[in-house]
């Protein structure tokens, strides 16, 4: 499931289902992975806030919105 979330070439619905599956597991490892996944893509470490939405890649946007 972890790899599926990170596979940019995978169909976006598969990535969303992988994120849902990780959330349903509700283990500490799964939740940590989802938080790290979100931070790696949407968090600006310099200002310690989320980056503005980027609509150039709607598939990535939808996957990240599901994680939130």
Automatic annotation (TrEMBL):
Lineage, broadest ranks: Eukaryota, Viridiplantae, Streptophyta, Embryophyta, Tracheophyta
Q: InterPro entries attached here?
A: PBS_lyase_HEAT, TAF2
One function term, GO molecular function aspect? transcription cis-regulatory region binding
Q: Which PANTHER family match?
A: TRANSCRIPTION INITIATION FACTOR TFIID, TRANSCRIPTION INITIATION FACTOR TFIID SUBUNIT 2
Q: Name one GO cellular component term.
A: transcription factor TFIID complex
Q: Which organism is it from?
A: Escallonia herrerae
Q: Which GO terms describe its biological process?
A: transcription initiation at RNA polymerase II promoter
Q: What is this protein called?
A: Uncharacterized protein
